Amino acid sequence: MSSIQLSNKEYRRYQRQIILPEIGEEGQQKLKGSRVLVIGVGGLGTPILQYLSAGGVGHIGIVDFDMVVESNLQRQILFGVNDLGKLKSIIAKKRLSVLNPDIEFEIYNLKLSTENALRIIENYDLVFDATDNFSTRYLINDACVILGKPWVYGAISTFEGQVSVFNYKDGPTFRCLYPEAPTEGSYRTASDSGLLGVLPGMIGCYQASEAIKILTGYGDPLSGKLLIVNIKTNIFRSFEIPVNGENRKIKSLRTNYEV
After folding, report:
1. Residue 161, pLDDT above cutoff 70
2. Please, are residues 121 and 143 in contact by the beta-carbon 8 Å criterion?
3. Under 8 Å between Cβ of 155 and 148
4. For 154-179, b where at least 16 C-beta lie within 10 A, e where not — what string?
5. How far apart (Å, rounded) are the C-alpha atoms in residues 250 and 255?
6. What's the CA gap between 115 and 97, in Å, rounded?
């Protein structure tokens, strides 16, 4: 029996999850006792944060240093026009606390870096990449390998998104999928190529679903697999990611992760 107990209010709130045999009371207690870190409060981060908060993850850390700008509003539906010019992390905590006042939020109004990544990530059970660049993803990966933390990856562009789980139970790491950073000009970011607003909502929800599987222990997380979703063609593809054991031997962070 878990030492973390649910209140009567929590039983009422989460009853639709608790009656699922795969979750049950024990699974809901695990969610309440979990500590999850979301890095980035953009198109992916906002649906991740909303569904983790609504679903009862007990402690959520939020890393973001950006302010809300008008072009965010097309896809980052946690924010509105009255939030323009304000820090995303602070607004997110305010809105999510209304959504579920029983959740503990910790905000980090900073950019993840080699100086702070290990210190921040070590306090959490699971990490989300909700960023939009390779530099931060390699940093997240290496810090999670060093600390033995699993992390959920998501990426989006135009009409297509990717989801995977890295560093989970001896599974592959991000460097197993992308051994080397892409060269300049070899890929286009979402800000260059465009993005349909509903896509990050779908991929962010997929990432949140993977987290609930990992935290409660039910189902088959996307460890060792890369799921690619194309909402234009309605085609879902899944590819195996081979494990390279050398990528699990990282002992220290690099001095520079700029791509």
Report:
1. yes
2. yes
3. no
4. bbbbeebbbbbbbbbeebbbbbbbee
5. 13
6. 29
pLDDT reading at 180 higher than 90? no
Q: 181 pLDDT band (50/70/90 cuts)?
A: confident
Cβ distance 25 to 49 under 8 Å? no
Classify strands 35-39 and 59-63 as parallel, antiparallel or unpaired: parallel
Domains of the chain, CATH where assigned: 25-248 (3.40.50.720)
Vertex 157 angle, CA 152 and 163, to 5° = 20
Tens digits of residue pLDDT in 52-74: 999 999 999 999 999 999 999 99
> How far, in Å, CA of 221 to CA of 225, rounded?
9
**Order of all β-strands in the sheet with 59-63:** 104-108, 59-63, 35-39, 126-129, 151-157, 160-166, 225-230, 235-240
Q: Average pLDDT in the 30-56 region? A: 98
| Inter-residue contact 92 to 67 (CB < 8 Å) | no
Residue 35 phi, psi (nearest 5)? -120, 120
Q: How many CA atoms lie within 13 A of 84 on its CB side?
A: 8
Instruction: Please tell me the predicted confidence (pLDDT) of residue 1.
Output: 46
10 Å Cβ neighbour count for 13?
A: 18
Q: Which residue has the higher pLDDT, 72 or 191?
A: 72
pTM of the predicted structure, to 2 decimals? 0.95
